[in-house]
Amino acid sequence: MRLLAFLGLFLSLALAAPEEVAREAVARWLKGELSPRLEEVLKAPPEEAPKLLERYALFPPPPKGLSVNLEGAKVEGSRVAFAAALGEEVGEVVVVLEGERVRRVFFRPEGLGLPAYLLTPLAGWGFVLLSLFWTLLLFQTSPFRAWLLEALALVRAHKGLYLFTNLFLYGLFALGALLAYGMPELARAMQVLFAGALEAIGLEKALGQGLPVLAGVIFYWNFSQGLFLTGLLPALLLGVPVLLLNALRYFVFGLALSPALLGGAFLLHLPTLLLELQAYILVTFGGLLLLAKTARGEGYGKGLRALLLSFYLGAYFLLLAAWYEAWEVGLL
């Protein structure tokens, strides 16, 4: 029945104006006509689960108590936004259109999007200067160079642990990529989940702002959410949480970014994957070093320094990855 209602939406709104298409989609979304329930996804048979998961990613259920002002539509290209509130939290409900077809509906709280200053030319030039000065200081006598050399020495001194971390995490990525050939619908659903998360934060707003702005936004997001929030912080808990978190992350990344889905574009994207995933491997390596040094009685402080050095080296890998990925996006 839900699938029929979903198809009926597209047919009934085929010739309507974007605002009307979006308004009707939001009304149906609020009624629960477009979104599968999480229980449906979890209990679905294997052959139906990928499609339900993809729909769940495209049309996440509206939060309870969400109120939407359907009168004041704001149209920006293929996106139509309506002011919304969830209690005291304000935001917007965004409808993404493909022509006259509704592709996605979601609620974006005000604090979830990218900071507006990151999308300015000044921020782009600031990231250019940061990149140049950081790179220059690596070749000069400076704390930046000293930290780099100490981090590299740390990797050489613990080659076994570093090699294990690389083989384990890259291996899980490769496993996910191979499984995508046998489960393309599930892999595609994972890809939609990732794309939806990036769309929810408003990453598309950076696409037309030039290479430096896009690179800065990519670095900001990967550093704050990937390396710091889900990397350094769990690594502080003696390494095991970040290893488990990244094990899941790399396997799902492998599914979503497999050559089975990307085709020839995979080779173009490969440097981004190697650089970006290496950054998360380094912070995982640092967390395991923290565990090892603490367990051997060397002290949490020494282990923490090893973790911070690995984090520093990982941050520079993310900087390189951001510039390449921004160039890659512009090329595509």
Layout of helices and strands:
Blueprint: H1 2-12, H2 18-30, H3 38-43, H4 49-58, E1 66-76, E2 79-86, E3 89-98, E4 101-109, H5 121-137, H6 143-157, H7 159-182, H8 184-200, H9 211-235, H10 240-256, H11 259-262, H12 265-295, H13 300-331
Antiparallel strand pairs: 1-2, 2-3, 3-4
Helix pairs in contact: 4-8, 5-9, 6-13, 7-8, 7-10, 7-12, 8-10, 9-10, 9-12, 9-13, 10-12, 12-13
Structural write-up:
- This protein has 332 residues and is α+β, with helices and mostly antiparallel strands.
- The protein folds into two domains: 2-109, Nuclear Transport Factor 2, Chain: A; 116-331, no CATH class.
- It contains 13 helices and four strands.
- It has a four-stranded antiparallel sheet with strand order 1-2-3-4, with helices on one face.
- β2 and β3 form a beta hairpin.
- The longest helix has 32 residues, at 300-331.
- 35% of the residues are buried.
- Residues 9-15 have low confidence and may be disordered.
